[in-house]
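SAMPLE LOG
Freezer: B-3
Tube label: C17
Construct: single chain, 348 aa
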Amino acid sequence: MARKKKLIPNETPLSAQSKVILELIQYNEKEYAKYEDLPIAELIANIKADQVNWVNLDGLEEKSIVQKIADHFCLHTLLVEDITSDHQPKVEEYDDYLFFTLKMLYRIEENKIDYEQISFVLGKDYLLSFQEKEGDLFGQLRERIRLDQGRVRKKKADYLLYRVIDIIVDNYYNVLDAIGQQIETIEEEIYKNSSEKQFKNIQKLKKELIFLRKALYPLRDAMSKIIKDESGFIDGSNHRYYADVYDHVVHLIDSLDTYKDLTSGLMDIYINTLNTRMNEVMKVLTVISTIFMPLTFIVGVYGMNFNTEKGSLNMPELNSPYGYPIVMGFMAIIVIVMIRYFKYKKWF
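STRUCTURE (predicted):
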């Protein structure tokens, strides 16, 4: 569910193209607070060590804001570079925090997946999330936290990280379902009337499946590493939740492989349909050519115009008043006989 929020006041003026949104959600079992529209320095000043602090940043164009957050939480320089650059999903352990990055998928528009990279930094009492653009999938989660529904308010920051990852992974199913529907649509179009349009759509789907493969396989490895984590960032009671997300990722990979095979099958169907259509055309042309072969022979023979008044060679039909209709009728009989014979053989 996308959300709309005001741009934060910032000490450094943002460019007209930059859109930076910053919020802090702070809670424990008894208290809840949400901060928006604050300068970065004031927002950081509201962070409390005895509560879970979820700092979310939308828009990475303003590097100074990212750097101020990094300075406050003592984030490594290489980690900041990973946040602001494109990476495959991965997880890295540092002394005081855990870094996790993955792709957040939204929908498929015109055979292209709408996505962004999202990065998380998990500490003892905080979760930092860095997004590339405005809007995400966490609207319902924010509302559940505000209303104290479910376990989130009773758990620590590591459980919050599980919830956001679980929401992202669950939306992968929606994207894969959309791909499955597109595969069915393209297959129906190919059977009705295959064209270059279907070929281009198949190629686009193959590219998106390759992208999903690059997003899911490293994500599986990252989730496996979290499950095996012994650093203490993930509470032992929450390992089963992360294991459940890992199972979902494995299932998504299986579905992805199935769709990959179906897409390859679409290409085979497309090629076979083209070959079948070509064979039908060639068959019709062959039948027409075969019918006209004896007719051409007869016309060629009578086109020689050999007419001898006296002699052994004589073509009496040339002098007969009924010669022309007789020959034409004979030719028509040949055509009818050949067509009936071809139908009897089921050649067309």
